[in-house]
Amino acid sequence: QAAAPLHPVAVQCQEAQVVVTVHRDLFGTGRLVRAADLTLGSAACLPVAQSAAESMVTFAAGLHECGSTLQMTPDFLIYKTSLSYKPTPSGNLVIVRTNAAVVPIECHYPRKSNVSSSAVWPTWAPFRSTLSAEERLMFSLRLMNDDWSAERLSNGFQLGESLHLQADVASGDHVPLRLFVDDCVATLSPDRNSSPQYALIDLSGCLVDGRSDDTTSAFISPRMRQETLQFMVDAFKFAGDDRNLIYITCHLKVSPADQAPNPLNKACSFNKASSLWAPVEGTGDICSCCETGNCPLYG
Q: What is the C-alpha separation between 106 and 114, in angstroms, rounded?
């Protein structure tokens, strides 16, 4: 008898799909289950491939296919599904010799990412285990030209000009996502915790730089798409410091696009004409905490 597989079910969470590989010696007894008795998710999706030689069965499904469900936590988008084994009597028999089984499967995707204006794309680092895995969403922050049509070739600015910043997330085959910028801080070194520093966006999406009397900094509304958020910041330099290189580091996150914006997930600019904070989308009251400073900071 061949040795039983150590991990009869293996999961790989990819950018747009989950791939589940099942060894037909599901219970480690040496008795192979029938591929036809294995399904994925509440929609009972069938395998896409099977290898008789290796006794393996493979499922592949989009993240929101086969009846999967989405759970959102403060840090992760979690897609949940399950592998089901339901033995059917072979031939004309009315008995079965194995128990039914359900194996829960989860894919975890971080909702948040720190990116800098040098447009560093975080490297993908899939984590594989028996029943769950993790794959990073792709976030970016880019300096754009004045009409937003392309990335800016130069990162040099004169005081009096405006920086056009565009944050994006590549949502792939996820449920539709809406991107938010939690905070942005300007520093004189790549370390976002260094001093001196100046907050451009703070309080979970308040463009606080636009509150100053001499600025026109604001989010661009409406959005071109839910996965993109654009904003303009008037060029500046740190007082009393001759260094001309400034680093801008932003903390980005996503929420499902069908979830209404709230004080935790918002993009708010200060309107000088009305002296009120206004959101890119959602009702005006979600921005009231930008003025009082008591916005929730986690999520």
A: 24
